[in-house]
Design goal:
The chain is of the alpha/beta class. The chain is 35% helix and 19% strand. The protein binds S-adenosyl-L-homocysteine.
């Protein structure tokens, strides 16, 4: 982030506007709307900065603008000179004003036209009366605090009220009815709402492969308990003020033992929190969500499972590999390459059968064991195989070979990201996706 966004309270404060003309008028307009007192001048003089909280330059001679910028910055007064980034200490965003709701968009000066396009898109999805709704919530602020001292309860109430009947009425401009509905809802609100745990699939690591349901729940969560497999890009989609707890990663090593994760989920829910347990891919595919769900059931805690795009599907898509194929593959088998006591406890005779595709999770470290097991059970060493790393993300890479050669090829190729092994005749029938 190149610039830090902030919203200034300018009511009754003085803003110096240097220059006169059309651009200066345009700059003055939103400042006036924010309640600023404009001190306008054509020529710069240092005393003009007396008592000023913000300085803006437009439609004035270059030398005047330079003097303004230097003097303001020397005094620590934020200054903006239109179309002269070098003279600015702050830049002005594209604004959507639905007071008290204000949206500001900036591209850090890189492409102001793009900022305006983004603003237009936001305008179209923001109901015109959104400000009415915000004002309504503001009028109830003190009452909500008094009735619901717990933060989690307040959030829960507001989430429901700002999307439910009171909101519909406010957005329709029926303010009195909205106010009554809001008051009724507040009266009936539970001071300690029961907690709930959502076991949510985060997909393969790309924010736009989250489901809409996952996105909504992440936006409403009080706490996010996530694995290492879930990247920042995805976590950034969660509610900003949600507590984030790293519970460790699926696979060979756990930062927190499973029993402790189970206990953590139960404890958080008992505190009345809305918990999103976020797992890479799908929670029920090598995600141990089954154990967590059982622990929650035993503790009598409400929970729901939200599916996600599992690595096999994301990797196949990234590498352009069909997982099933009318001739080459009639079945898809998801299998773990995770070894116990140095052994792979797998039914190799079944896995070595032709006309199926194997998707091996957690299999990079145990590739030799897997290859030996499959070849020992009669699989043709020429059977196509591919390794796909960071499937479903912009960083996806794939490596093609056969079950006989892939391990040797993989040495020196792996980049350290999560990788999945695909094995089967269908792999050779893929077409790598093209960018155009
Ligand atoms: N629940 C997850 C799997 C967890 S097991 C899911 O449904 O995808 C962890 C293994 O998944 C990793 O060792 C790796 O084999 C695989 N994996 C997860 N994300 C991946 C990705 N983006 N690309 C390739 N493999 C991935």
């Amino acid at each position: 982030m190149r610039h830090f966004p902030a919203f200034l309270d300018l009511r009754g404060r003085t803003v110096l506007l240097l220059g006169t003309g059309e651009v200066a008028d345009r700059k003055a307009e939103p400042l006036k709307r924010a309640g600023a007192v404009i001190r306008q001048a054509e020529r710069f003089a240092p005393e003009l900065l007396e008592g000023v909280v913000l300085a803006v330059g437009a439609d004035a001679a270059e030398a005047e603008l330079r003097a303004l910028s230097a003097a303001a910055q020397a005094r620590g007064i934020p200054v903006n000179v239109v179309d002269k980034p070098a003279l600015c200490s702050f830049i002005t965003p594209a604004i959507i004003d639905r007071a008290p709701v204000t949206v500001a968009v900036s591209t850090g000066g890189a492409a102001p036209v793009l900022a305006r396009m983004i603003r237009q898109r936001i305008e179209t999805v923001l109901p015109p009366a959104i400000g009415t709704l915000a004002a309504l919530a503001e009028r109830f602020q003190a009452a909500i605090r008094a009735r619901l001292p717990e933060l989690a309860a307040r959030r829960r109430f507001l989430d429901a009220a700002l999307t439910g009947a009171p909101a519909d009425l406010a957005l329709a401009g029926r303010v009195a009815e909205a106010e009554a509905a809001f008051a009724r809802a507040l009266e009936g609100a539970e001071a300690t709402p029961p907690g709930i745990v959502y076991l949510v699939g985060a997909g393969p690591g790309s924010a736009d492969l989250l489901t809409l349901r996952a996105l909504r729940l992440m936006g409403e969560a009080d706490v996010i308990v996530h694995d290492r497999l879930v990247p920042t890009e995805v976590l950034d989609m969660a509610r900003r003020d949600a507590e984030r707890i790293l519970a460790g990663k699926e696979g060979a090593r756990h930062d927190l033992p499973q029993a402790e994760i189970n206990a953590l989920l139960v404890r958080l829910a008992r505190e009345g929190k809305r918990v999103v347990r976020l797992k890479g891919g799908d929670p029920f595919v090598f995600g141990r969500a089954g154990e967590e769900a059982a622990a929650l059931r035993e503790a009598g805690i409400a929970h729901e499972v939200v599916p996600g795009v599992t690595a096999a599907l994301a990797c196949a898509a990234s590498a352009g590999i069909p997982l099933t194929h009318r001739e080459a593959s009639r079945a898809l088998t998801l299998v773990t390459g995770h070894a116990r006591d140095g052994r792979l406890d797998l039914d190799f005779a079944a896995l070595a059968r032709p006309r199926q595709t194997l998707a091996v999770y957690m299999g990079v470290a145990t590739l030799p064991l897997l290859r030996d097991g499959l070849l020992g059970a009669g699989m043709d060493p020429a059977t196509p195989a591919a390794l796909v790393e960071q499937g479903g993300t912009a960083r996806a890479r794939s490596l093609h070979g056969t079950i006989g050669t892939i391990e040797a090829l993989a040495a020196g190729w792996t980049g350290g990201g999560p990788a999945l092994l695909l094995v089967g005749e269908a792999i050779a029938l893929g077409t790598p996706p093209s960018a155009s």
